[in-house]
Amino acid sequence: VKYCIGVDVGGTNIAIGLVSLDERRICHSMSVKTHSPRPCEAITKDIVDVCERLCEAADILTDKGFCFIVS
């Protein structure tokens, strides 16, 4: 199964969804408060933490890390 993670960083919340590319559906999702303004490093840490929790919930190993594409 292949997965991707979608991230929406808003002024109030950061919404993150784990998507099964094979099933074409959101498997797990979670949101956390953005708590802006604050340094981008703190926001990035929250994003990585939530991604790890979502992968753990789906029994996906994260030992190889993540690749982020930002546009």
Walk me through this protein's architecture.
- With 71 residues, the chain is an alpha+beta fold.
- The protein has one helix and three strands, in the order βββα.
- It has one helix at 40-57; strands at 3-9, 13-20, 25-33.
- The chain has a three-stranded antiparallel sheet with strand order 1-2-3, with helices on one face.
- Strand 1 and strand 2 (13-20) form a beta hairpin.
- The chain is globular, with a radius of gyration of 12 Å.
- 6% of the residues are buried.
State the secondary-structure class. Answer: alpha+beta
- The overall pLDDT, averaged over residues, is 89
Q: Tally the helices: what do you get?
A: 1
Q: How are the strands ordered across the major sheet?
A: 1-2-3
Percent helix: 25-40%
**How many beta-strand segments?**
3
Q: Largest sheet at a glance?
A: 3 strands, antiparallel
Q: Identify the overall geometry.
A: globular
Beta-strand content bin = 25-35%
- The unreliable regions are none
For the terminal residues, how far apart are their CA atoms? 25 Å
Please compute the radius of gyration using only Cα atoms: 12 Å
Order of helices and strands: EEEH
